[in-house]
Amino acid sequence: MRARRLRASLKGWGGVATMAVVCALVAVFALCVPLSGPGIGDGRAVSQASQATVEKAEEDCEAPEKQTLSPSSADGDTIKAIKDREGEKRKLIVGVDQNSYRWGYRNPNSGKTAELEGFDIDLVHRIAEDILGDPDAVQFKAIPTDQRIPAIRDGRVDMVVRTMTINCDRITDVAFSAPYFKTGQQVLAPKSSPVKGYDDTLADRRICTAAGSTAYSTLEADQKDGKLPASTDISTTVPNQLDCLVRLQLGEVDAVVTDGALAASQAAQDPTVQLKGDAFTAEYYGVAMKKDADDLVRRVNQILVDYRKDTANGWQASYDKWLSATLGKDAKKSEPPAPQYLRST
Known about the structure:
By secondary structure, the chain is α/β, with parallel strands linked by helices. It has helices spanning 16-32, 48-59, 77-83, 119-132, 148-153, 214-225, 241-249, 260-269, 294-309, 315-322, 324-327; strands at 92-96, 99-100, 104-106, 116-117, 138-142, 159-160, 175-176, 181-183, 185-190, 206-210, 233-238, 255-259, 273-276, 283-285, 288-289. The strands form 4 sheets. The protein has a 5-stranded mixed β-sheet with strand order 5-1-6-15-7. The chain is globular. Residues 1-47 have low confidence and may be disordered.
């Protein structure tokens, strides 16, 4: 495996003190989430031809969002191992976020259980329903941004559904589904800030990003190439994106750079901040799985095909419920293009 470079509160809660308390509670809960799960299948049934195709695509990586396997509903070794789990352990084990508003978050107003809700969570339930026949047959594991790939590679989860951008570095470590959402990097700053966007107004400013995120890797590369002012301080990284919002509220940084979809949700949490300028990249979220779990990748791709076709309870319905309030009613700019798949040799 080639070494890869590190890339990278609900509305009305408001207030630095409240956000800090919320983050503390989230951190406490995360410690309670089990970090090891019942035996996760290795999914060893990988054809040599299929593996060779994937490896060749990685070497020639230009459009990583197109480097995934064709859809299939067949059960392979990975899926069979999931189905063979007994009793209460017969669940899909999924790494998610629990503090990204409207994506994967615990709504304190939903009752004593404060169940996970959001756009990503809807997709997880759909995948569980297809594979195990029960949308609630899921064991959620809250993982920070920089632990998404380690959680998959270490076998702690079957997959990660956590606003995870498909990129060339990551496809050397994990396998991705076809894209299920389109976004781009964007700047978030106080409304009163002189920062105008991803431009020279970031000179002498402190920027916060999540460790292991594409935002950080983009800033690092652009600063090296002279596209970002050399005086911009990009040294502040945090485990989770919500921590960046808190740093911004505390005045410890001047701006946040993250996916526009997440930035819009953070702006919805705090009316004193706003998106600055347009998105300066085009990126796609995908479901991440183990490199050798071909059958699971194909199955998820088939589920995504059906999910997008389902106008009543699929992708569009989930967008309308969770994201239209922050991203606008027109979902076309967020809907990924028709997927393209690798051809086996």
